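Reading a protein record of the kind used here takes only a little practice. The record below shows the convention in full:
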Amino acid sequence: MFTVIANLEAQTGKEEIVRQALLDLVPLTRKEEGCVDYHLHECLGQKGLFVFYENWKTKEDWEKHLQMPYMQEILGRAADLFANQIELDKVQFDMISETSPKTS
């Protein structure tokens, strides 16, 4: 499993535009081959700070995701939308448990 945590900060005054642009990516990305899960979060204490938590079957699946037209479009607008460079944490995991433990 290949996991990506992407931190994005909207430019001041563009928080709502960025929120909608990022939300639009979610259903498209979830349909992609190799996407295990794809979640968008917004920091409660700092409006305009967004985090994607993504799991992909392989690093190659994630790399294909970056080439999708909708990803290329938003990445092409990054300088206009985001306050700073997108921060990516990429980690490759070996899943050792398929389900969470049952609680009584």
In short: The chain has a mean pLDDT of 90. Helices lie at 15-30, 59-66, 69-76, 78-81. The CA atoms of residues 66 and 90 lie 14 Å apart. The two ends are 29 Å apart (CA to CA).
